[in-house]
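Q: What does the predicted 3D structure of Beta-crystallin A4 look like?
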Amino acid sequence: MRDNMTHHCTILRPLEGESDGPPCPRPGRPAPAGPPRPRPGWPAIIVYDEECFQGRHHEFTSECCNVMEFGFESVRSLRVESGAWVGYEHASYQGQQFILERGEYPQCDAFGGSNAYHIERMTSFRPIACANHRECRMTIYERENFLGRKGELSDDYPSLQAMGWCNNEVGSFRIQSGAFVCYQYPGYRGYQYIMECDRHCGEYKHFREFGSHCQTPQIQSIRRIQQ
């Protein structure tokens, strides 16, 4: 392994949990149309029911369990005004998940970035409170339940194998600080799995805890989430 990976075939740290999102006690609250505006530093996202920022829209500053409760069939475009968010294909934080960082997303295909899979809708979403690009540390393990060879990570890794990881799978994670997005393939492609230090006690013991859509422990690239 290279410099910032501890040997043992070392690399990362994650969290755990059966649900990808909060228990869905309430839908997100749209921010008021006029003053007062969200305080500086608060997360804010504007969602639209048509592509290219057209049609009905709402601004949210907290999680939304089901955007259909606000009169949307789905979200077709969006603007992230501040903070980092994770979007989900289905209500109640289920289905494909994808990272949404500050910027504009004019259509659904943009939600997944370089995702190798087509995304047709976003129905729920939530802010990532612990995202901190400068303070991110995680440990990855070869096998589930934190067994086998391990590695410490604190940077972006477009290819884990190129940096010395032993195979194309990660069995479990511990996240010490910050938040990461893990990708199925090298080059930040394929399914995305969001790993946060303040969710699930920072531990992901088995690939089924990576996300409701996760079918295998295949993880080949990882990067820090921008706040």
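A (community wiki): The structure tokens above were generated from the sequence. Residues 73 and 93 are 16 Å apart (CA to CA). Confidence is low (pLDDT under 50) at residues 6-19, 21-36.
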